[in-house]
Amino acid sequence: MTPRRDPRPAAERGHSGGGARHGGAPGGTLTGSIEDYLKAIYALEELTDLPATTSDIAERLDIAPPSVSGMLRRLATRKLIRHERYRGVSLTPAGRKAALKTLRRHRVIEAYLASVLGFSWDTVHAEAERLEHAASDELIDRMAAALGDPATDPHGAPIPTRDGTLVIVPTQLLAEQAVGTSARVASVGDEDGELLRYVGSLAIRPGAVVKVVSRAPFDGPLTLEVSGSGAKAGRTHVVGSTVARAVKVDKPR
Amino acid sequence: MTPRRDPRPAAERGHSGGGARHGGAPGGTLTGSIEDYLKAIYALEELTDLPATTSDIAERLDIAPPSVSGMLRRLATRKLIRHERYRGVSLTPAGRKAALKTLRRHRVIEAYLASVLGFSWDTVHAEAERLEHAASDELIDRMAAALGDPATDPHGAPIPTRDGTLVIVPTQLLAEQAVGTSARVASVGDEDGELLRYVGSLAIRPGAVVKVVSRAPFDGPLTLEVSGSGAKAGRTHVVGSTVARAVKVDKPR
DNA sequence: CATCGTAATTAGGTGAACCTAACTTTTGCA
DNA sequence: TGCAAAAGTTAGGTTCACCTAATTACGATG
Questions:
Q1: Is the pLDDT confidence value at B3 over 70?
Q2: Fewer CB under 10 Å: which end of chain A, C or N?
Q3: How far is the CA of A73 from the C1' of D27 (A)?
Q4: What does DSSP assign to residue A158?
Q5: Distance to chain A for B44, nearest Cα, Å
Q6: What's the pLDDT tens digit per position in B125-184?
Q7: CA A58, CA A65: separation in Å to the nearest integer?
Q8: What is the SS3 string spanning chain B?
Q9: ipTM, 2 decimals?
Q10: Beta partners for residue B91, in sequence order
Q11: Domains in chain B with CATH codes
Q12: Which of B3, B64, B131 sits opposite A59 (nearest CB)?
């Protein structure tokens, strides 16, 4: 029960304000905040294949644009992003690596919570969002190992490997499937819990096979028919055009 | 994949600096920092049955005394402690409740990491120290349930229940046992990983029965003999006077 | 090609949680 | 009982990550 901490000259302890207070940060020296920015920039780059813009990042993180500008300067100083003033930002290799590491943390945690601890897929995101900044590499690896190193999280999103590789299986938006064809749902957006509860109730989840019955123009809603033999099989439902990504199938497996 | 966050008038978002940025804090509205202070104050009160002093808190948290003074003022404002200037601090019922909640988080996490994910008892403390501020009540309860609501953590410390009750089994320091008597180890301090590896290697852990062979005066080291039938049984070892708490036994169970 | 709207930045500010240096209160001891 | 050492507090400063208001750059359009 003896505390007896190290008697460093006190000038060398927590010293710098706010952020990560305890020395034992999980990954490198990145604060949760920085990890969130990198994740957002990564996601935006993925989405558009173009440099992420200040206002997109701001909207995504629910932060005012000037705050983003300031943080981008810091990230550029740390060599995590390239930033051309008034243009946009893109991740450096170091930044991408950090982003993928955080993404791995997030998705491993989601998978573990859902598989082992019985969390529903609409609640894992919020929980993972906080835990991903506190969990050590060791913990993440043990959770992943306990699941047999899963390839995807509960929403179907691929989990980057320990060495930072992300296997991207090409998918299309369900809305991009030809009307009348069947497709196997690959993934569903993970952030909107309400949406997840809704599509879950329709049995639209990764692995489900659905047929696109009709599609309204201009990104309008889709009408889907759930295939297979479940209780919900054969029912048709109307959903938004961006709910899920999918791969075409010939025979419903 | 549509982010589309709430378009509040922007004056109502993260607004206040540093601390907990996203609204979804796990417990109440307490930051990790505040929880750490309350835990420390609780531990010091337990230890001495007297109000905790500024410098004790400072030493325990490895923070300069003036920083503690400042934080104590904030904690008093929030009605979590009572603070008499130049005297000391004691927890209010609200503060004690918050401290016990954090203690529960910490110990449930330790127990889970050790039992389910195979962490060694000398590494769980550091991991729990970070996770306890990020885990939701839901997660803690599910982890506890997965273990059948354990009564103690891997170091033998009691785990407060969901409703904030802490069952205290009276124990004495091993050093306080009469020489020649046997005692069952109840708990070992959880913070010092190196110490834990050492006493672990001697098979001194909760449940182990040891005999106090001799004791040097003035809180000097103890000589112990490990009872039972393990590989280490019968060996004698010399350890510090504060390594473990124990209860006397007549027949080694 | 001037202008106007939007996006991005700079300027200046806040609160949290830390720090050191200087000062005050308490306490232990001659 | 008096006074010095120890403990605690105040004063003033830093960094971080946010904010609003004001300004500047860009790019589309008449």
A1: no
A2: C
A3: 24
A4: B
A5: 11
A6: 999 999 999 999 999 999 999 999 999 999 999 999 999 999 999 999 998 999 999 999
A7: 5
A8: CCCCCCCCCCCCCCCCCCCCCCCCCCCCCCCHHHHHHHHHHHHHHHHHCCCECHHHHHHHHCCCHHHHHHHHHHHHHCCCEEEECCCEEEECHHHHHHHHHHHHHHHHHHHHHHHCCCCCCCCHHHHHHHHCCCCCHHHHHHHHHHCCCCCECCCCCECCCCCCCCCCCCCEEHHHCCCCCEEEEEEECCCCHHHHHHHHHCCCCCCCEEEEEEECCCCCCEEEEECCCCCCCCCEEEECCCCEEEEECCCCC
A9: 0.89
A10: B81
A11: 32-91 (1.10.10.10), 172-248 (2.30.30.90)
A12: B3
Tell me if B189 and A127 make a contact (CB, 8 A cut-off): no
Q: Could you give the C-alpha distances from B24 to A71, A127, A130, A141, in angstroms and in order?
A: 22, 9, 9, 26
* B55: pLDDT strictly greater than 90: yes
Count CB neighbours of A205 within 10 A.
17
Instruction: Give the nucleotide at minimum CA-to-C1' distance from A66.
Output: C9
Q: What percent of chain B has pLDDT over 70?
A: 88
**Is B2:B13 a contact under the CB 8 Å cutoff?**
no
For B11, name the nearest residue in chain A, comparing CA atoms only.
A64
Q: Give me B232's structure tokens.
A: 């280490």
User: What is the distance between the alpha carbons of residues B119 and B226, in angstroms, rounded to a whole number?
Assistant: 24
| A55 CB and strand C closer than 7 A | yes
And the tokens for B148? 């059948």
The Cα-based distances of B184 to B114, B181, B188, B246 in angstroms read 21, 10, 12, 5
**Average pLDDT of chain A, as a whole number:** 88
Chain B nearest C-alpha distance from A14 (Å)? 7
In B, minimum Cα distance to A144 occurs at: B117
Residue A146: which of B6, B117, B139 has the nearest Cβ?
A: B117
Token digits of residue A73: 């300067």
Split at pLDDT 50, 70, 90, the class of B217 is: confident
